[in-house]
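Hypothesis: this fold can be encoded by more than one sequence.
Test: take the structure tokens below, design a sequence, compare later.
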């Protein structure tokens, strides 16, 4: 299960597999990068998608199916 990160990369937003050396794709908006990362994770057996804000800190982390969320809480 690959995990993906969404973060600001210059003037673009990047969707990058955690173990990759370069982004999988670059996008104009954070929402577009998040959608791409969700699709990549889903196509590769699920995983976690972490979203970093402009300050670089993780502000959201979601488990994408068919992976199983380790916690029983929503969000």
């Amino acid at each position: 299960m690959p995990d993906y990160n969404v973060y600001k990369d210059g003037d673009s937003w990047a969707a990058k597999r955690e173990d990759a050396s370069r982004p999988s794709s670059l996008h104009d908006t954070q929402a577009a990068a998040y959608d791409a990362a969700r699709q990549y994770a889903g196509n590769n057996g699920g995983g976690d998608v972490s979203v970093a804000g402009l300050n670089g800190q993780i502000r959201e982390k979601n488990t994408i199916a068919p992976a199983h969320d380790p916690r029983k809480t929503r969000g």
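Residues 4-64 form one domain. The two ends are 19 Å apart (CA to CA).
Hypothesis status: open.
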